Amino acid sequence: MGPLDLVKLAPLMSRSRGSPEIAIGLIDGPVAIHHPDLAGQRIEYVSGGSGPACSRPGSAACAHGTFVAGILCARRNAVAPAICPDCRVLLRPIFREGPTGPFGIPSARLEELAAAIEESIDAGARLLYLSAAIHESSVRGHRALEGVLDYAARRGVIVVAAAGNQGLLGSTAITGHAWVISVAGCDLRGRPLQGSNLGSSIGKGGLSAPGEGVMSLGSDRGPRSFRGTSVAAPIVSGAIALLWSEFPDAGAAEVKLAFTRPGGQSRNTLVPPLLNASAAYEAIDSARRRRKTRCAMTP
User: Are 7 and 43 in contact (CB under 8 A)?
Assistant: First the structure.
């Protein structure tokens, strides 16, 4: 079973390619936008980013940003999943192409992340993808991040964040926020990946998605694979973008609940449930049919 089959994305992908009305804010590294499988797609940079394109295609930041972009918006016949190629993608890089953080992972300060979130929202993003290893954390940075995530909730902008790969049990300033859909990684049998962060807030309001076995675009134009929650999170982001494209009048809270609680039930677990795109579609479609039936019966 392939990664997209595991999360029941194929039916939704056959129904839709996404819509330009749904703009995804990609807050990650820079993207090789001249890659043949990205050229001509609806990709634009948000002002304030670190640069217009990858200046060092071999850098970890560029490789990661390009990989994620391929999952979301590559051409459908590419090696990448290309979940929602007709959606707009707003790039706001926070990872620099120079030296990486601990363990070779690109990182950013909380203040940088908060600024990127606010700028992406103001640029028109309706959905945000975050995968951010944080360094130089501060009280001021935590307050700024909490404030801007509250701002996303008020504006009806859904936030999807990679839960992280440090093997920790607990939450961060990102994954602990009630509005954030935190995404843990799983294998192709739906079992949690070793190293994926878990916790009560992640289990209560988050999702799991494949964090391995996913091929996407390399910044050097060859195929590339990564492993971890930053692979799983764009799969969830793409699924949300597709569903919202099918129901553009749905509110952010309705779309969010369709994915995290498709049956309306609450949960108390450390491991979030597996993404089920078909169940999310059915949840919103059924609600729409019930409303139409009630309206038709009203004299």
Answer: no
Residue 82 φ then ψ, to 5°: 50, 60
> For the segment 263-292, what is each residue's pLDDT rounded down to a tens digit?
777 778 899 999 999 999 999 999 888 887
Residue 193 sits in a domain of what CATH number? 3.40.50.200
Query: Encoding tokens for residue 204?
Result: 């209560």
Is residue 164 packed enough to be buried (19+ CB in 10 Å), middle (13-18) or exposed (0-12)? buried
Instruction: Determine if the pTM surpasses 0.90.
Output: yes
Residues paired with 89 in a beta bridge: 24, 43
The whole-angstrom separation of Cα 209 and Cα 196 is 11
Domain count, the chain: 1
- Using alpha carbons only, how large is the chain's radius of gyration in Å? 18
Which element (helix H / strand E) includes 146?
helix 139-155
3-class SS of residue 149: helix
